[in-house]
Amino acid sequence: MGGSASLLPREALGEYQELTFLSKQEILLAYKRFSELLPKEERENACSARVPKSRILTLPELRANPFQHRICHVFSTSDDGDDSMSFEDFLDMLSVFSDSATSDIKSHYAFRIFDFDDDGTLDRKDLEKLVNCLTGQGEESRLSTAEMEQLIQNILEESDIDKDGTINLSEFQHVVSRSPDFASSFKIVL
Amino acid sequence: MPKQEKPNDIEENVGSDVDSEEGSAAENEENVKVTDKGGKRSTPRTRRGHARVRARCGGEEDEDDEDGTRRAGHRRHRNRRGRGRAARNEGSDSEGDPTRKNQANEKSKEDYEEEYEKGGKSGKGKDKKQDKKPDKKGKKENANKKKKDKKKSGSGSDSDSEEEPITEEELAKLKEEVEEKKKLIATLRNKPWKMKKKLSVLKEAQLFVEKFEGALGKGKGKKFYAYKVMMTKKWMKFQRDFENFKTACIPWEMKIKEIESHFGSSVASYFIFLRWMYGINMILFGLTFGLVMVPEALMGKPYGSLPRKTVPRAEEASAMNFATLWDFSGFAQYSVLFYGYYNNQRTIGWLKFRMPLSYFLVGVGTIGYSFMIVIRTMARNANDDGGGDDTSFNFSWKMFTSWDYLIGNPETADNKFASITTSFKVNMVMSLLGMFCPTLFDVISSLENYHPRIALRWQLGRIFALFLGNLYTFIIALMDEINLKLEEEKIVKYNMTIWEASLYNGTIPENSTAPPIQVDPADVPRGPCWETMVGQEFVRLTVSDTMTTYITILIGDFLRAVFVRFFNYCWCWDLEYGFPSYSEFDISGNVLGLIFNQGMIWMGSFYAPCLPAINVFRLHTSMYLQCWAVMCCNVPQERVFKASRSNNFYMAMLLFILFLSTLPAVYTIVSIPPSFDCGPFSGKTRMFEVISETLEHDFPSWFGKVFGYASNPGLVLPFILLMVLSIYYLNATSKSYKEANLELKKKLQSQAEENKRRNKQKAQKSNEQDENSFETEPPQQTGGKQDESTPNQDKKKGQGGNEVKRTGQPQEASSSQALQHAGLDLNGHYLPQSRGGNLPPPSIAVTRPPAPRGYGMLGYPPGNTCFPGMQPGMPRGPPSYR
């Protein structure tokens, strides 16, 4: 515990155990890690403090993730849109990414993470951004426009069951739930 | 949905005028119904009802107010994110709906309670017959209020039922509700909500359960019920603690996690496999150690008491040398570590421990347990796979599930980016080719072997064959050795009799009854004891294998890394990126090494009980050594791929190896006679005779008979036949299920498409119609159009709405214009019918007893500003009606 060891209240711990897929140890570890992200003077009341996005992204677990901004955005409950996270948001995130979370809830959040413009469907723009995230920053690894077009076309052909040009949540879940890799790779462990 | 309320109000008015003698007992029941119905409502209604409560009772409920503001805030928040966001929220409602309903449930209950109280008060003055009851009720209300102060979500009807005798029906209902809440609590973590919302719902549900759980078991069952509830709570807590304990017991979690973040899940899967292996070996070790080695060491005859427990005279001099011990000869050979040391005494020690039997059963149990655990794990993995064979989502899977979120190392992430890009490109090329020249596709598809996972399998297969060849060469050599030893044994046996004869002849001729001559056990000639020899071979092999592995790691990885790292400063080319470079972690080789090592353990552990112990030690050290080596001298692989599909591949190989290693072990146990002078089975013609011996001596005679009958081929054969048949049957059913699954999938798809098509058509049609003035259009069509064009959320309310419709219609006709607007505002379903004005008069068309809300509505005539439907800014209803 970074210096000032403020402890998580007991009943809160119980409730969090009830409400997340995390075990007691994981919650305590999350608490520790979270309070380490806070400046020293705020560690006393880590439960109510918010950690700015820039600090959250220093976590090694998120550092290399191409969806780090989206993850922060989706799980943040901040009112002023700065994507800062409270401890509860943090727990929510870890719970969804934990080993024991159901693939239903995982796919739900995966959808929201991939939905870059927050409009409830994955349209061509979202898919394009997604591909760009997956192919990395390097110029040489980028797909050409034609390739991108073709790829998105292929994906829509496969997944867009109702042929409305976008992938909605249920289509997404339908596709993802059949993937053997999804539950094991959509995972972040502290 | 205010329409629902409105008719109720009117019905109440009418009801209380016409027959106010209905009595409050009935009313109570009806109230329950109302609350029940309330449960089917969704949030908007709740909000409105909520606001109304506030309007009516001012600041009486602080908590409520707070809640309201929170909700308002929530709404604002939503609005801020714009319409798109709202649309999505609606989408997500489909999941969260039940619980929302629950929330709504409570709210509306509260609402109704409010009205109910008013009704009670106003009814008091009116009805003389009920003079007493209302009094009582007044008290009750007070009590209710108190409760409500403590608890924001009281439910009137339920608190009433606490005091009045509860009918069976209500009890059942209450019970159902409590169960529902409990279920809600249990499944809350599955909801994709923010923690705050989950917390508040949890608290509400917990309070509800706490409050009403006690009321459930009235009468004689009460104590028992309370006890049961308490025990369930304790049990839940225990389970949770136990889960926590279990996770705390998983070793090396952090190490593996670190590797996972650096190398992706495929390398980590090796370490997870290693850990799993370690667990299994711990159990095998526990079995052999606890049931064989320790009892023999504690209760068996001590060292030196028998020839088989003594180092022979010829070896005595070198028995303690390190070289000898390292070779597992000398003292090591004549110890509990090996088969030969065990005595064939039926029972040992004061516990009458049946050593030979235990030895045999542990040997069989080791193999049986291994089979069971491997198959179980495989089945579980297969379940997880979820039948991911179909390739219909090739691209989508690549897109949505190919990122490994565990990767935390930028370098690995770069590799992953590259590999994803390549796989995209390769796949695109493939699909293009497939599109333009389908005939070429088959040829090209062989290129798919290029996929790293498949390449890995090829590599695994190759090494596998190599290992297998080695193993079987080893076994064949051993078999030859065993045959030689058996020959030797015959000679030794013959020599023994001569030696014994000479012994007796020399000292006390022809007096066999005399006490045997004391000969130092070290001097007694003995047989070759092939079992110990086999055990020794396996132990040696295991140890040397371990050594080789470690040395390879040290030289191949560590020294190479050191060389590359430090000589890079003074070399003429870049060593780090050029020729030697750092090594990658060789998953396939390591996994196969582990699997073959395990096969060795399985094969040898019958003849060397120490083998699991040695293996546990080996796995333990290699966990640390390899973790260290990976982190300090290996680089992430060029192609990072996920391991989930390889898992069952490993398992399948393990199973295969287990089967292969069981064969020789079983063969030696069943068909080779044990040595005559060493081991727990000496003196028997076959090892498994220990079973029949035990049956004969330790079980009543009837048991032996039963066993004899049961093992009679006449019974065994039909049994086997039955098993085969059942396997066939199960196989057939599983196939048909699969087919049915596929069929359903197809159906689902076509249905979805059909639906969409129809919806589009209808939307188009309605749009066209919309352009015409809707005043002229026939009501029916409007209704139909309504159905289609209202957003999702309204559709969801459909059920509740229909119910409302039945009760609501008639009154509607007589209600004021304001009410019509209110109804319109919420849900357009009813309006078209009512607007025509040709509906039956109110008192006839009630298809269902109207849901009363007490007499209370007198004070709130329709059109009153308090009426929820009148609240401005409710974004309900189709825009076409605005």
Jot down its keywords.
heterodimer; A: 190 residues; Recoverin, domain 1; two-stranded antiparallel ribbon; 11 helices; globular; disordered N terminus; B: mainly alpha; magnesium (chain A); transmembrane transporter binding (chain A); calcium (chain A); repeat (chain A); EF-hand-dom_pair (chain A)
* Secondary-structure element order of chain A, N to C: HHEHHHEHHEHHEHH
How many individual β-strands of chain A? 4
- How confident is the prediction overall: mean pLDDT of chain A? 83
Could you give a short account of the major beta sheet of chain B?
Answer: 2 strands, parallel
CATH homologous superfamily classification of the largest domain in chain A:
EF-hand
Gross morphology of chain A: globular
Mean pLDDT of chain B: 69
CATH architecture of the largest domain in chain A: Orthogonal Bundle
Describe the biggest sheet of chain A? 2 strands, antiparallel
Q: Count up the helices of chain A.
A: 11
Low-pLDDT regions of chain B: 1-163, 773-882
Provide the CATH topology of the largest domain in chain A.
Recoverin, domain 1
Fold and architecture overview:
Chain A has helices spanning 10-19, 24-37, 53-56, 60-63, 68-75, 87-96, 103-114, 124-135, 145-159, 169-177, 182-185, and strands spanning 50-51, 85-86, 121-122, 167-168. Chain A folds into two domains: 2-96, EF-hand (Recoverin, domain 1, Orthogonal Bundle); 103-185, EF-hand (Recoverin, domain 1). Chain A is 54% helix and 4% strand. Chain A has a two-stranded antiparallel ribbon. Chain A contains eleven helices and four strands. In chain A, helix 5 (68-75) packs across helix 7 (103-114). Chain A has 190 residues and is mainly α. By secondary structure, chain B is mainly α. Chain B is built from 29 helices and two strands. Chain B has helices at residues 2-18, 24-38, 43-57, 62-80, 82-126, 132-150, 156-163, 168-187, 195-216, 222-249, 253-299, 322-326, 355-385, 394-401, 410-436, 438-445, 452-506, 530-567, 587-604, 611-633, 644-671, 689-698, 701-710, 713-771, 779-789, 792-796, 798-814, 817-826, 831-835; strands at 583-584, 634-635. In chain B, strands 1-2 form a two-stranded parallel sheet. Chain B is globular. Mean pLDDT of chain B is 69; it is low at 1-163 and 773-882. Chains A and B meet through helix 1, helix 2, helix 4, helix 6 and helix 7 of A and helix 5, helix 9, helix 10, helix 11 and helix 14 of B. Chain A: InterPro entries: CIBP, EF-hand-dom_pair, EF_Hand_1_Ca_BS, EF_hand_dom. Chain A: This is Calcium and integrin binding 1. Chain A: Residues 102-137, 147-182 form the EF-hand domain.
